[in-house]
Amino acid sequence: MNLAAGLDARPYRMPLPPALQWVEIDLPKLIAWKQEMLAGETPVCRLERIGLDLADVEARRRVFDQLGRRGTRALVVTEGILIYLSSEEVASLAQDLARPPAFQRWALDLSSPVLLRMIQKDQLGQQMDRVASPMKFGPPEGPAFFQPHGWRAVDVQALLKAGAHERSRRSRPWGGVCLMERA
């Protein structure tokens, strides 16, 4: 399940098993546009798109519950979305993802507070602020942020080697990809 999938085209370009069920969730208008743009293309796996504003908590919970009943082992992917949410919104999303037993793993990207501040100060951060999409989430506790919300880190890969150690995540710019599993 790919949340805030955007223009991701992995189901068309990766060598995925044909029986794999890939679910993309994003804003209804974006999903409609993407569907139209890719109408003539054939995905390599079973692809389903769901138009949903993830900020609509009740609708999100209904969709997660429905999808959770359809499978036994699901990987959730969130790339490039958590940084735009508040800590409270990320905690709520994490708890909602931890509810269905089928959602067993979660791959996410994460930034340290230091990296978040650097991004906020640079040109990209200033542009995002102007379009009302400020970057907010860079937890000081790193991947441990998710533990009280039902998830624990099983693998953490730093994007830069300098940030690979736990003590570095608090004081240095650190960004990484985390694989979480249900706690």
What features would you describe in this structure?
With 183 residues, the chain is an alpha/beta fold. Helices cover 34% and strands 24% of the residues. The protein is built from seven helices and seven strands; from the N terminus they run βαβαβαβαβααβαβ. It has helices spanning 10-13, 28-37, 57-70, 87-98, 113-121, 123-130, 166-171; strands at residues 2-3, 21-26, 46-51, 74-78, 103-111, 151-158, 175-182. Strands 3-2-1-4-5-7-6 form a seven-stranded mixed β-sheet. Helix 1 links the parallel strand 1 and strand 2 (21-26). Helix 3 runs parallel beside helix 4.
How many strands? 7
- Ends distance: 19 Å
The count of helical stretches stands at 7
Record the strand order, biggest sheet.
Answer: 3-2-1-4-5-7-6
Are there runs of 5+ residues with pLDDT below 50, and where? Answer: none
Find the structural class using helix and strand composition.
alpha/beta
Spatial shape: globular
Order of helices and strands: EHEHEHEHEHHEHE
Write the topology of this structure.
Blueprint lengths: L1 E2 L6 H4 L7 E6 L1 H10 L8 E6 L5 H14 L3 E5 L8 H12 L4 E9 L1 H9 L1 H8 L20 E8 L7 H6 L3 E8 L1
Helix pairs in contact: 3-4
Summarize the entry for a quick read.
The chain is of the alpha/beta class and 183 residues long. The chain has helices spanning 10-13, 28-37, 57-70, 87-98, 113-121, 123-130, 166-171, and strands at 2-3, 21-26, 46-51, 74-78, 103-111, 151-158, 175-182.
